[in-house]
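A note from the maintainers: we've had questions about how concatenated examples are separated. There is no special marker in the raw files; a new sequence line simply starts the next protein. For clarity in this README we add a label.
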Amino acid sequence: MKQTEHIINLDLPPKQRWSFLVDYKSEVDELLQCYLNDFEGADFIFESIDDYKRAVISADFMEEIEFISSISKFSSNEILIANLYYDILKFYLGCTAFAIETDGAILHSRNLDWWTDNNLLSSQSKIFDYQRNGRTIFKTVGWVGFIGALSGTKPGKFSVTLNAVLSKDAAEIAMPVSFLLRDVLDKANSYSEAKKTLEKTTIASDCLLLLSGITSSEMVVIERTPKRSATRGPDNGIVCVTNDYKLIENGNGGESELQATSCGRYDRACELVGAKKPTNANECLDVLKDEKVMMGITVQQMVFNNKTGEIELIKTGANNM
């Protein structure tokens, strides 16, 4: 079923871009409370957020956050912390993703796995269409109150999705990954420019980034720690990623419960796509729905058509638009 796409007008001042959220006040508060519940007792995060904000977060992003604060029951600092969820608590996230070429187009597919009460993150998932001069610049799949990107596409250019991973490298006072992805989707004008930025930029925490463009040669997984990077390309025209490093030496890094299933999901996704390469979004979704790929905590399933910018989004277990 076609999902409603909410337009973010980038020609407007930052404090006006999310004005439509006045119609979603209760949803914003419910989602923010969901994120913040997981920070209960972590007072050190709230004590240091002002210093981090001044050092790292752009004025435009802060203006967007301050507008959201103006229509919600939460302070701008609380909203910023909620937006930093991945960088602080990434061990709650799983995810499986793959990219393939079919009929001259690249299809970029992903499950977003994230535990949540009451199916909240699934039912309230939305597509955001960021525009300038009435033209789509990029799209993301996310939630109201969350201004970064975990999954996004720039029509005719590239798509990028984030998977969680853990290394032993120290965190950095640097750009949060979800904000970097939004910046790249907005400002990078090509796959190669996006790839270079995602490989070279110092970031706050570890991640795995599936980046795909519009030709068969434009598919990579960029393995990141805050300062290290390793990039692997496709095997037989397929590139898959779950939640473990394949190239980066990680010593005896920690492992979350989600990561413990990573290899099994990776092998199964590669097996399915290799045995019968999907030719359309529905066949990609069939792979994502496989019982050995999909998790009980999968909240979103999506397929990006990199050429057209079309997004097929399934809110797992949800009937809401």
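[label: protein 2]
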Amino acid sequence: MLTMYGIKNCDTIKKARKYLDANGVAYQFHDYRADGLEADLLQRFSDTLGWEALLNTRGTTWRKLDEATRSAVDNAAAAQQLMLAQPAMIKRPLLCRADGSMLLGFNETAYASFIVEKS
């Protein structure tokens, strides 16, 4: 079973969900805002993908931070603390398989490969 992590009103999440639905792929959706985010889950994401990959520094939430806050995010602990406080800071979507493998972002070709690999 696949689990998609993200925020339901994100345009990229909507595209990714539409792709999975159109291709008949079963998945569970975990909305960070509605379902929450546990520190141990974020740690697992960070261990697998790296905190730099997870932290969305191109989004509105990041740009709204003051310079001192952005400058202080220079290590895994600081980044994880920020992402736990503001889950919109996490790049999305994050697609996870039961075996622990993960795919960050949405690209139809990458999704097709990731889905086939699970079979």
